What we know:
Two copies of one chain form a homodimer.
Chain A: H1 4-11, H2 14-25, E1 43-44, H3 45-52, H4 56-68, E2 72-77, E3 80-85, H5 87-100
Antiparallel strand pairs in A: 1-3, 2-3
The structure holds a DNA duplex.
Amino acid sequence: MVDTVKIARALSDPIRYKIMTMLAQSDLGCCPIPGEKDLRPGLCNCELMSELGLIQSRVSYHMKELYEAGLVTEEPRGKWKVYFINTKTLRDFIQEINKDFALK
Amino acid sequence: MVDTVKIARALSDPIRYKIMTMLAQSDLGCCPIPGEKDLRPGLCNCELMSELGLIQSRVSYHMKELYEAGLVTEEPRGKWKVYFINTKTLRDFIQEINKDFALK
DNA sequence: TTGACATATCAAAAATATTTGATATTATGG
DNA sequence: CCATAATATCAAATATTTTTGATATGTCAA
């Protein structure tokens, strides 16, 4: 099962929580490679840096935290890296909380 | 609305998460006062201390964190204090995550 | 291949969170 | 009221997390 405490920790930082909402709302494919199509909606580091006003290593650190908690997936796209929200982990997280705390 | 980041932080410590599961599972009223009845299922500090093997000030610290996140309610009962899980906050938390991350 | 750009990693500094032991507060029962 | 028991608070010590700047790695395009 998912590591509920680890996921809670990943979500417990305001910057990371914000990044997750940005990923959830992104509806445009990012960093297109000429000739490729069907880009899934996601965000790359550079967009996160400029939107949040954070330096590169800081974004990188937080994305690693989210990745290791299973909350995002990654896809190298050319020299960029694009991140996607992993809704499966979030659903499992919610299900586990429902179970652990006898909510339904 | 609930402070989702704050709740996530409260749940992000293994001890606090464990305490929440213990509160969710408690089915016996605790620390009865002679003459009173209808005790809601809950746990007092002393039970948490002995079950978890933690010293008093440490339990107190963690219960305060949970209380301030709205995850538990408290009731002084005689010279004891009994804690209850606050399922409303947990439900609101889940609802907010569903909304923020477009899960359904 | 080289230069430019994007990302990853690292070590040190800074900021936060947790643990502990001591002391304070509050309630109870004698 | 007094002694005892339970909980709260506090300051100091520890531990953990986050931030930063520097450097390394990897990719692309010329």
